[in-house]
Design goal:
10 helices, 7-stranded mixed β-sheet, 2 domains, 4-stranded antiparallel β-sheet, globular, Alpha-Beta Plaits, about 35% helix, alpha+beta, about 25% strand, Ribosomal Protein S5, domain 2, homodimer
Chain lengths: ~300, ~300
């Protein structure tokens, strides 16, 4: 019987501009790792939370009920496991970055924990457990980071359809570029600041873009992605909190982006673009961000990046 | 040179429950005919408006600027035609039925008029002219009846993307049933009664259904159509105006409907269902309607019904 398992889960872009709370996209090349091992007793405990430098993370809690990794792992373990479980969290996703950091920890934890079960569940069946972690972090059942981090690619995941989700085909020849400026935005706080209502005209306009974007993904209509990758409701309320947003989005548009918006509640900014333009577009976004006096890093990802997996 | 042309344009289901103002579906077997002919002078005139019985229609105006057929025909003729134009409108779609009656007249008129032009336009290029007629009838640029009536099938047509529209694949094995109870609802009046705002929660729920429905059409996921064909915002505000709505929708659900809602602003009620159940479902809806003391008729249509055409 295996005694320890390590799971990896990617960062993700929540909302993807056009689908507030219902659409998410997995990223390549950046994510969290969680290792789990059997321990004495019958508790689920966080043994270590380590940063990218391998040192104990300065901010994240090791209390089982205050860490999205352990909350999610415990939800799964309490229902299907037996004995004690010890977690080590290796944070690779920056905190409060709008890159789905809390979701990546929760997903990596359930994927690893699943590997210790006598009868592991199918990946999709892990979603409700990972969502328990996310519920703690964001205060609601938003699957737009958890679902793509678990399942990979572009995922439609309206709360009203959960646990059912729909993997959308990422259109060929399109890439995602994500820029993370060295700023922080608290997701739960950012949600509380949003207006609670929208006008009928805003709702109709926004849902038209979302429906068109979904159609564009299936039909591979890249021009239609460019016409529909828009957020007329949430972005105008949030962009002002990210001082480099205007400069970075102008730079992305100048470099050929199909659309630009905040990733989740920000501060990260993402663009979709023709794959051939992605590297130069990332450079242009970084230069614009540094031009505003803010350090940053960026990643380029295709639209069908893999979801979480067990490392062997 | 041809001196007269007749165009046919089908009735249609506006909104299709899940896509208020952005989605429409063409119907088979019911529509309007408009015949146009060259006449002396340089005016566009309505010569006759006839009902199904071939007698002059008791309600519709023959004033060029008060009939959607002549408004639409004139918009096209003024830009591309020369001389005088006389229209005869054969109404096949009941008035104020929620079946896109005004749109069918406008579309049939532009399709016929196009046939008299020295260089006829491609069908899709007729949309803006037909919309001029609809603007008169409904007070806005809503293409959800005009676009399917012109182009056929299931059409995504958000105002923000016009004149671009997206024909969605109607899923194989699914049919539409439309029941027209002998009641009338004025569309423009019905619009004015709607609340001007929605909550954030309603918007997010509804756009999730719409996005899922579009995905279901492309992927042919009939079960997903059943989970997403819902209207949580508009239907609750309008269903109370249609006294037979509850009885008819219960009957449709009992007979295997994937979803039931108002067609446009009603009073017509439509259901999507597996094609094999369509005939019995129509019978069940009719029985329920008559059980409420309201006479009615119904039509069964596939999801890829043809759009408007010139009759030869």
């Amino acid at each position: 019987m295996t005694d320890s398992v390590t799971g990896f889960a990617p960062a993700s872009i929540g909302n993807v501009a056009v689908g507030f709370d219902v659409l998410g996209l997995a990223l390549s090349g950046v994510g969290d790792r969680v290792s789990v091992r059997r321990i004495e007793g019958d508790q689920v405990v966080v043994e270590e939370v380590l940063g990218l430098d391998g040192e104990p993370h300065p901010y994240l809690s090791k209390s089982t009920d205050q860490n999205t990794a352990s909350i999610a792992a415990k939800a799964l373990w309490d229902e299907h496991g037996r004995g004690g479980l010890g977690l080590t969290v290796h944070k690779g996703v920056p905190l409060q970055s709008g890159m789905g950091s809390s979701a990546a920890s929760a997903v990596a934890a359930v994927v690893a924990t699943n590997g210790l079960l006598p009868e592991p569940l199918p990946t999709a069946a892990l979603l409700p457990f990972a969502l328990e972690g996310e519920r703690y972090a964001s205060g609601g059942l938003h699957a737009d980071n958890v679902a793509p981090s678990l399942l990979g690619g572009l995922v439609l995941c309206p709360e009203a359809l959960l646990p059912h989700t729909v993997r959308l085909p990422g259109p060929d020849g399109v890439s995602a570029v994500l820029l993370h400026p060295e700023l922080q935005v608290n997701t739960a706080h950012a949600r509380r600041l949003l207006r609670k209502g929208v006008t009928q005209a805003q709702w109709i306009e926004q849902q038209g873009y979302l429906a068109g974007f979904v159609a564009a993904c299936y039909s591979g209509d890249v021009a239609l992605i460019g016409r529909t990758l828009r957020d007329v409701i949430i972005e105008p309320q949030r962009a002002g909190n990210v001082s480099c947003f205007d400069a970075v989005s102008r730079a992305a548009e100048g470099a050929g982006a199909l659309g630009v918006s905040l990733s989740g509640s920000g501060p990260s900014i993402f663009a979709l673009c023709p794959a051939s333009k992605a590297t130069n577009l990332a450079t242009a976004m970084e230069q614009a961000c540094r031009g505003e006096g803010i350090d940053c890093q960026s990643w380029v990802s295709d639209m069908n990046a893999p979801g979480a997996y067990v490392e062997t």
